[in-house]
Write a structure and sequence with these properties.
By secondary structure, the chain is of the alpha/beta class. 36% of the residues lie in helices and 18% in strands. The chain is built from 15 helices and 15 strands. It has an 8-stranded mixed β-sheet with strand order 8-9-7-10-6-11-12-13, sandwiched between helices. A 5-stranded parallel β-sheet has the order 2-1-3-4-5, sandwiched between helices. Strands 14-15 form a two-stranded antiparallel sheet. The chain starts with 17 loop residues before the first strand and ends with a strand.
């Protein structure tokens, strides 16, 4: 359906610039918008797009505000599908001649803040968009941690901010990273979000822990790196979709590809985003060629560590690597780094002791940001290992393990818990505080 044949029928603290995605079929118009916005310090244009594919890919940057001309899409159906899958505040421009009923339908979509016909008054847009962005930030700060323990500024990132691509990574081995990655993915999926867990281990233990087949796996997708290849390589595990990792260390080298190369981790994540996934979780190995590729593809890092003295230095050095040594090679801001302490044995440091030591290590490294706070502490429980050995989910093993995982999933992704065995709400809407986010299952 074209636009000539109409039917009748969500970054940083309060003072940080508002991130904006500009999308128009005519790049000259997009450039004009950009020039108007760049002179206003309240805004930061994070990306621009002029095709549907480019628009969906740029949503991965989690823009707070989206100025979108409808003619980027071929007609109302693909536009509506796109609008129901984003959570930033959308200011929509429709072409002249669009009937009133269709405009009213667009206004009912939760992400759409306004609909203009033909063009937008850029000054009016800037005034309203800035106010809406600040209101969204206040809402987010009311339901998530608001400050660094050494920084003083409000943390960025939230489940309302758009697509989250989480790399679960630790430089130390034996931290329980894979168990937490699996459990977090299951918790998010049970909240009603379409979730993909991607294993990157070699050999990958996710199939063993989850009772899945070792094939198809990520190698299957690399050999056929397109949407159909992704669909055929995914295995369902209850509400969760899983892409198993590398079957052996010889195949792991296939994942070490530049972002722009065919079959890269970045292309895999982009393909998953096109497939409608709202949450993508990468179980990233401690070391190897695929590790920096996973970091470059993510916009959120979940650092898993044990509360030991040895993990203090490893974690601080990893934090310095991401925030300083490879800065500019990924989209992970300090406000989107979260720490989980996994007390796999008894007699370890307390969370406060461990964090204080890690923060002191960062100061010795002359980092200009404090070490991120501990967002969850996982208590030691033999029931977790017993559940995994018997083929059951660790998330269902004990409440002591499940509670911090569910809190973490709520903080990162929002939503409401969907009981096991049920699907998301029939209306496809997840309630996030006063916000409503439409999802696609």
């Amino acid at each position: 359906m074209s636009w000539t044949n109409q039917p009748t029928p969500q970054g940083g603290g309060q003072d940080a610039p508002v991130s904006v995605l500009l999308a128009h079929k005519d790049m000259e118009r997009t450039t004009a918008w950009y020039q108007a916005l760049q002179v206003d310090s309240r805004f930061r244009v994070s990306s621009m797009a002029n095709t549907p594919q480019d628009f969906r890919a740029k949503l991965a940057s989690s823009p707070e505000i989206i100025l979108l001309d409808a003619t980027v899409f071929d007609g109302p159906p693909p536009l509506t599908e796109a609008l129901t899958s984003v959570s930033g505040a959308v200011y929509l421009i429709v072409p002249g001649g669009v009937n009133t009923e269709l405009i009213e339908q667009f206004k009912t979509i939760p992400s759409v803040k306004s609909v203009s016909v033909g063009d937008v008054n850029i000054a009016d847009f800037m005034t309203r968009a800035y106010a809406d962005a600040l209101a969204l930030r206040r809402t987010v700060s009311a339901i998530s941690p608001t400050a660094w323990s050494g920084g003083g500024s409000q943390r960025g990132g939230s489940g309302a901010g758009g697509l989250r691509i989480v790399t679960v990574w630790s430089r130390s081995g034996g931290t329980g990273r894979t168990t937490i990655a699996i459990s977090l993915a299951q918790a998010v999926a049970r909240r009603g979000l379409k979730t993909l867990l991607i294993g990157l281990g070699a050999p990958d233990v996710i199939p063993l822990q989850m009772g899945l087949r070792p094939e198809p796996n990520i190698v299957s997708w690399i050999s056929n790196p397109n949407d159909e290849g992704l669909r055929s390589s995914i295995q369902p595990a209850g509400e969760l979709h899983v892409l198993a990792g590398f079957p052996d260390i010889l195949s792991e080298s296939q994942g070490d590809r530049p972002a722009e190369a065919s079959g890269s981790i970045n292309e895999l994540v982009t393909s998953a985003a096109y497939g409608g996934y709202s949450a993508i979780i990468l179980d990233t190995p401690a070391a190897g060629g695929v590790t920096p590729r996973a970091l470059s593809a993510a916009n959120t890092w979940l650092m898993v560590a044990r509360p030991t003295v040895s993990d203090v230095w490893m974690s601080a050095e990893s934090f310095r690597t991401v925030t300083q040594k490879i800065a500019g090679q990924h989209r992970i801001t300090p406000g989107n780094i979260f720490v989980v302490l996994n007390q796999r044995t008894n007699g370890m440091l307390t969370a406060d002791q461990w964090h204080g030591a890690a923060d002191a290590a960062c100061r010795k490294m002359n980092l200009n940001v404090g070490f991120p706070p501990v967002m969850a502490t996982i208590p030691h429980s033999i029931d977790v290992s017993l559940a995994q050995d018997s083929g059951r989910s660790a998330l269902d093993a004990t409440d002591d393990f499940a509670r911090p995982i569910h809190r973490l999933s709520e903080m990162l992704f929002g939503g409401v818990v969907v009981p096991v065995g049920q699907t998301a709400k029939d209306d496809g809407v997840i309630h996030f505080g006063p916000l409503k986010i439409r999802t696609k299952k």
